[in-house]
Amino acid sequence: MILLNRIFYNRPTLEVAHDLLGKKLVRRMDGVELSGIIVETEAYIGVQDSACHAHRGRTERNAVMFGPPGLAYVYFTYGMHYLLNLVTEEEGNPCAVLLRSIEPLSGLEEMQKRRKRGGKELTNGPAKLCQALNIDKSFNGWDVTEGDKLWVENHQPDRPLMVLSTPRIGIAYARKKDREALWRFLLKP
Fold first, then answer.
1. 156 located within any domain
2. Domains contained in the chain, number
């Protein structure tokens, strides 16, 4: 197991969002390891990005984004879903990468039990990913560089990675230039 360390996250957010593709997200729970390969991310780049939660400054909700790189920023949305982001760049600069999708590797039965379904729908969205891995608000501020309960490992892919960049999803409220920025990254199947 080679954990991604704080240095990995303390880089430009677009680089981190791109470089997280193909890495292994791991959640250990009650002795069971749930994991998957990160296949989709989105970058949110601080106060200048009108789609970013920190765009209007620091609040109780987004305070973790202003912390050190390598922390989990987990928030509740639409009154029903948790979403997992990983804080990037230097402390005080509120940037993060949303983990949008993983391809399950281990703990498949446990994930299916939590999601009450399987197949492609298991972890192909940020809320689905959190539900499958039992990630909730208790992980807000969690240090993913420690290797305990929730972390990201370096992973050697079994095929060359081909990355697509597209506009981000679900940010209709943002300025046009931010809506059109190619800051969503996906592994091409």
1. yes
2. 1
Residue 98: alpha-carbon gap to chain centroid:
4
Domain that holds residue 41: 6-187
Tens digit of pLDDT for each residue in 87-107?
999 999 999 999 999 999 999
CATH of the domain at 88: 3.10.300.10
Contact between 27 and 134 (Cβ < 8 Å): yes
Q: Is residue 33 part of a domain?
A: yes
Beta strands in 4-71 (DSSP E): 24-29, 32-45
Task: Tell me the residue length of the chain.
Answer: 189
pTM over 0.85: yes
Under 8 Å between Cβ of 14 and 166: no
Residues 6+ apart with CB under 8 A from 21: 38, 39, 40, 41, 161, 163, 185, 186, 187
Backbone angles phi, psi at 52, to 5 degrees: -80, 140
Express each pLDDT in 18-43 by its tens digit: 999 999 999 999 999 999 999 999 99
Residue 1 is assigned to a structural domain of this protein: no
* Cα–Cα distance measured from residue 6 to residue 112, given in angstroms and rounded to the nearest whole number: 32
